[in-house]
Specification:
Blueprint: H1 10-24, H2 29-35, H3 44-57, H4 63-90, H5 95-122, H6 126-145, H7 150-163, H8 168-172, H9 175-179, H10 183-198, H11 206-220, H12 223-240, H13 244-270, H14 273-280, H15 288-295, H16 312-319, H17 336-368, H18 370-387, H19 396-411, H20 429-444
Helix pairs in contact: 1-3, 1-6, 3-5, 4-5, 4-17, 5-19, 10-11, 10-12, 10-18, 10-19, 12-18, 13-17, 13-18, 17-18, 18-19
Amino acid sequence: MKELYTKNSKIFIGLYIFFIFGAAMGDWKVLNIALGALPKVVSVGVVGLAAAYVLWTGNFRNFKLLSRFGLLFSSIIIGIILCSILTWIIDFQTIGYIVKGVSKISYQFLNIAIVLCAVYMFEDKAAKYTFFGLAAANFVIILLGMASTGPVGALRDLIANITSFGANDVIVNSKFIRAIEIHDITFVMGVYVLYFLFFTPGEKYRYLYAATALFFFFAGLKRIAFLSLLVAALFACFCMLLGPRGKRVTLMLSAVIIVIFCYFYIVIIQDGTFTKFCIEHDIELNGRERIYDYISNFYKVSPSYRGKGYEFCVHLLKSMKGTKDQVVNINAVHNDILKMYVEMGFWGFAAWILGYYIYQTRWYIDRCGEKTAVCFIVINIYMLVTYMTDNTMFYYWSSMVIRMIPLSFFFAPVKSIVLKETDVFRMNRFERWLHRKRQKEKEWRREPKMRIEK
């Protein structure tokens, strides 16, 4: 049975897609209101599937390599937990409060386990099969949403929503649009548009998959995601023009710029500059500005600020619900960059942005190569823009996909255009340019430190 290869097994592929589909159906508002995050438990089947395969075949290929990725992914979560526990102890929080806070973030370890199991079983195909499960769930949710308006009414509302660029009155007055407004999966579809366009060169149906992801992206219509997609796509296009050395310099420079941006973003929110700018330019924040202004009373931009601990912001907004202090009728900050600063403190926030963006970018460059590092930073630029006004950092599917895609891309076999001519003087202009580019790449390319077992 050691010849059993999950990557090409229809049974394993089918079961994996089913588990992802079943868990993703929990994002349908009817189930989400009734069961909350409970349907996500279905995704545990992926871990069981991988465990059954290992026990049955004894195939431990790439375990060492995947464990390194597991440590990398887990380090941020462990850092958040340790930083929060230290803060809670200093603030004399109860054991119950600490346990509840730790449990709120610990589900990310399951998320990481699913990523590692999926890539162990399907290697470079893991991200694609995850897309199939999420897309199937998104399609079914749209069909279920049509029950309130019918196909014609649903199409009319969908067009009105897109042409109005997600106007509030259109959303409020349409049961169909409200039914298919699945935040997490919609953001993920933007990631998949980037993935299929730029990081699946050998995929036969890449443009079809990208178009499908773009359709679901438009159906969910998150306005900040449009800006995210544009910025990330332009950065990806620019990186594609560079050689290995240019990629390394650009990636590290981009990581430094992101760190500086995150710090000054906190500064302009705290002093009210961000809110003032949005109001002056008629940028609709849907009440977010009131949350930012309210939370500014609980932190300061200073090295002496030590943070409040994970989930403080959610607890704060929930505690004022129904009181005279309530600013808006939502429990989320809708700004993950601000949330991380308020909860982790000055030095915890610094450790996060330096560790995640600078250290991990360097880690991907050295261990996985420049191309995988480009994939990592492009996807994280997309997510960073969404962090500015939304809660996507620890969304279940978003955090899963941004880990899985660079890992799947690292496992993908290198494919390049075959030059018809070997004699430079007989090549056309394009072939000569491609030949020169490849010669320069050989000169400046660094071999990745990690190797995939076949």
